């Protein structure tokens, strides 16, 4: 009987080759409102909530949006929020995460459902042959940009 073992050479020599996105983190000025918005508008579920002893003013939560994990961090102390983009050009010129994106089966139907739930369209539906996608963009309750795409 021969036993096969995998070595680092069969798995790839670069330890970074095992990387996968785990979550996106959003720092928000209104923790409870943000949890509620993601639950009501994107059907998110709270996976876990916690605090960190050395940061007593912070609350943290992992939300699951159909397998995509978003970490929400908010302070219990009042904060002034970050500037909110008023157009896509401003949104693309900010430092940090400019937006995150969900791939969906039918972007037109998703946007119609979000609009039905009271979410305003930030960037109208459009088809873009160069990257091969149809997309729209919305903003969450804090002005974070969320893109939805369907491959053409």
Automatic annotation (TrEMBL):
<dbReference type="InterPro" id="IPR004360">
    <property type="entry name" value="Glyas_Fos-R_dOase_dom"/>
</dbReference>
<protein>
    <recommendedName>
        <fullName>VOC domain-containing protein</fullName>
    </recommendedName>
</protein>
<dbReference type="Pfam" id="PF00903">
    <property type="entry name" value="Glyoxalase"/>
</dbReference>
<dbReference type="GO" id="GO:0046491">
    <property type="term" value="P:L-methylmalonyl-CoA metabolic process"/>
</dbReference>
<dbReference type="GO" id="GO:0004493">
    <property type="term" value="F:methylmalonyl-CoA epimerase activity"/>
</dbReference>
<dbReference type="InterPro" id="IPR037523">
    <property type="entry name" value="VOC_core"/>
</dbReference>
<dbReference type="GO" id="GO:0046872">
    <property type="term" value="F:metal ion binding"/>
</dbReference>
<feature type="domain" description="VOC">
    <location>
        <begin position="20"/>
        <end position="151"/>
    </location>
</feature>
<keyword id="KW-0479">Metal-binding</keyword>
<dbReference type="InterPro" id="IPR051785">
    <property type="entry name" value="MMCE/EMCE_epimerase"/>
</dbReference>
<dbReference type="InterPro" id="IPR029068">
    <property type="entry name" value="Glyas_Bleomycin-R_OHBP_Dase"/>
</dbReference>
